[in-house]
Write a structure and sequence with these properties.
1 helix; disordered N terminus; four-stranded antiparallel β-sheet
Length: 185
């Protein structure tokens, strides 16, 4: 019985390696959504993408003036354990141009989104943090979201996010045509 199990494992491993070996770098990965690509009919694109430690894929963009994030499992299907059970979370920041532009995953699995919002018609930085389940994290800025300007009406917006080793959040973008970086705890 043990020899049969070892033989089965060896054959399975050989088939897996052969399948990987036959793929040419740059080929679509057919393990992902059978043909290597996936689309959704949500009317949103994917401005940012990040892979969680467990292989799940988080994407962000905007739709109908709201920030939208979606989470896919590693095979390309929407993750029913995320958000309201459909793999999609929509957050309205109050502006007509809310859009998720950047993503980062904190070591504890929390999802940080760098965004732009159009408060009073003037684009501003926005930062949102969600729990690993896709719920706004009330321990961040009391409701999971914040907006900020750099001192004057400046047409600013977040374009990148990074997590420092100490857990602090860096958000980069532009403010009145200049480089802008803010750091949050």
């Amino acid at each position: 019985m043990r020899k049969l199990l070892l033989l089965s494992l060896a054959v399975g491993l050989a088939i897996s390696i052969a399948g990987l070996a036959s793929a040419t770098p740059g080929d679509l990965d057919t393990v992902f959504s059978a043909d290597g690509k996936v689309t959704t009919s949500l009317g949103a694109g994917a401005s940012a993408v990040v892979v969680q430690a467990d292989g799940k894929i988080v994407v962000a963009d905007g739709r109908n003036g709201d920030v939208v994030i979606m989470r896919f499992n590693s095979a390309g299907g929407l993750d029913s354990a995320f958000g309201g059970g459909d793999g999609v979370v929509t957050t309205n920041l109050g502006g007509p141009i809310d859009r998720g532009n950047a993503l980062a995953i904190q070591p504890d699995g929390r999802i940080v989104v760098g965004a732009t919002t159009g408060v009073a018609g003037d684009p501003e930085f926005a930062v949102l943090r969600y729990t690993p389940a896709g719920v706004l994290d009330a321990s961040f800025s009391t409701d999971g979201r914040l907006t900020m300007e750099f001192g004057e009406p400046d047409g600013s917006g977040a374009a990148s996010v990074a997590i420092q080793a100490d857990g602090r959040i860096l958000v980069g973008g532009s403010a009145a045509g200049n480089f802008a970086v803010a750091r949050f705890t």
